[in-house]
Each structure stands twice: as structure tokens, then as C-alpha cells.
Amino acid sequence: MDTNKKKLITHNGSFHADDIFAAATLSLMLEKRGESFEIIRTRDPETINSGDYVFDVGGMYDEKTNRFDHHQKEGAGGRENGIPYSSFGLIWKHFGIDLCDKNIDVWSMIDFKIVIPIDAVDNGVDIVIPKFKNVTPYGGEQPFLIFSPTWQENEKNLDSIFKEKVEDVKKILKREIEVAKADNLGGKLIEEAYYKAKDKRVIELPNSFPRYLYQDTLSKFPEPIYLIYKSDHSETWKVEAVQKSPETMESRKPFPKSWRGFLDNDKKLKEITGISDAIFCHRNGFLITVVSKRGAMSLTQKALLEPSQIEPQDSI
């Protein structure tokens, strides 16, 4: 018997995203430290008192004794934006930074992307207002919670299901941290490209970054209208219209209506744009593909001179 094995204790019975993600975070932390541990699901007070880390159960928040519950009457505090902490938020607050190699930017990216939404849902706080009746986002926790037994199924395997989902979430968290590290560096390179640009209306990217990354980064600045970059899967160049802000997909200046919707080297696109190597223009006017960098740069200059034709865009 390993007497040094740490006891990670949470409640038994039904589980939610906050206790699964909290258990996964603690597991990754202890694995990184080279410490052995076991996950125990119970509501027995004596067993709870014996835990090295207790979360989402126990009625106490005390970081000095590693107690991380939020169900007590006074709660466990909240963020500046008013969203209270759940057990996941508390665990991430105290131990997540170690998983991010002390990088506060990466820690914060995971906090906003994953932790805060889960904390909000667990505390009954709405963070999304549906625009369409009966249509809501498929939350990130759903792929794990659907493995909870239905009312028609036997619940005797809840503990094993919980531990199985913890292993799944560990993989997700590890990958999200790696992606956040890459995005953090990529965002700095995109900002650098903006600051170096002579004409800040047109930004040339040094790499083909994920779309959300360059759009979110550049839309925070007031000047960028178009961006260009070399495709990472073909010998072509992409030209995109920059979004109005990170909160919308609406472009600051879509390409002219007369350019839109031409596919696969249509001669009409070349004639209308005056760019001999123009290949494709998305029907919503936010993206054009061109063979050469020279063609891409010429196209942006032509688009800048065109009258603004901003209108509500369909889904990409």
C-alpha cells in the first residue's frame, strides 16, 4: 500500500463539469510533480476530513488546507466580472498556473475560454443570450456529461464513469494549454506585424495562423482593413477582410459585391478585379484567393479604393 498516495476527494453521485475538470487539473498537477494519488468520491465526513485535496464537497474554502468547495452559504468568492467560483475555478486559480509553466497569459487564456464558462454554468449564471428561439450553444462540458446514466440506466457505475471522463478531460486540458501557448506567441507575432506595417490598413502576416487568432488580434486595432498571408497548404495567397471587433464576424470592409461568389479560376473574377491571377472570392465578400503575393497586394489596393459596401453577412 502506498502511504504517500494523495487523496483527491469530491462528492459521489451525479457529476458535473466543475468536479470533472477540477479533478483533471489536480491530477495533471500531481503527475507533473511526480506524486501518486487516488480519486475518492464520497460524502462521508470522516473520509472527507482525511483528504489531501477536497473539492466540490465539504462546505469549506480554505486554500491553506486544500479545501475547495463553493456550496457553503457564503460561497467562495467571485471574479471582478461578478461570476462566482465553482470548484474548478478555485482549483485553476491556485494550481493552474503551474500547468501553464508560470505563464500568466496562457493561464488567463484557459481561464476565459474554459474555466469561467464552466464556473458560470455551475453557479446558474447566464453568459449567452440566444439570438434564435430554441437554439443554444452546445456547451464544452456536454460531450462529457452525456455519459451520465439516463433515467433508464443503472447508476452503479457512476464512479468509474467519472474517472474515465477525468482521463478524457486531462487530454483536453493538456492540448488546450499547448494551443494557448502557441496562440500566445502567435498573437505577439501578429501584433509585431501590425506595428511594423507602413500602411496599417493592410497587414501581411509572417505565417498562416488560425483564423480566430489573427482576426481577434487585428480587430482590436482601429486601422487594419485587410490582411494577407501565404496559404500553408498550397502555393497561393489569401486576402481577408478584418472583422469589426472580436465579438462579431462582420467585416469592416467586405470586398465589392461584383467580386463575390466566383469559383475555381473563373475568368470573370479576373476581368472584374483586374487581377490576372485572382482565383476565388467568397460569396460573403470576406475572403479572396490569389496566386501571387504581388496579385494579393494589388487586389487590396483596388479594394481600398472601392466604395464601402458593408451589409449583414451570412454564416461563413
What series of H and E elements makes up the topology?
A: EHEHEEEHHHHEHEEHEEH
How many structural units, i.e. domains? 2
* Biggest sheet character: 5 strands, mixed
**CA-based shape:** elongated
Question: Helices and strands: which structural class?
Answer: alpha/beta
What is the percent of helical residues?
A: 25-40%
Kindly state the mean pLDDT as a whole number? Answer: 92
How are strands sequenced across the largest beta sheet? Answer: 2-1-3-5-4
Q: Using the CA coordinates, give the radius of gyration.
A: 25 Å
Into which percentage range does the β-strand content fall? 5-15%
Q: For the terminal residues, how far apart are their CA atoms?
A: 57 Å
Low-confidence stretches: 312-316
- Number of H/I helices: 9
Total beta-strand segments: 10
What does this protein structure show overall?
By secondary structure, the chain is α/β, with parallel strands linked by helices. It has two domains: 176 residues, no CATH class; 107 residues, no CATH class. Helices cover 40% and strands 12% of the residues. The chain contains nine helices and ten strands. The strands form two sheets. The chain has a five-stranded mixed sheet with strand order 2-1-3-5-4. A five-stranded mixed sheet has the order 6-7-8-10-9. Helix 1 packs across helix 6 and helix 4 crosses helix 6.
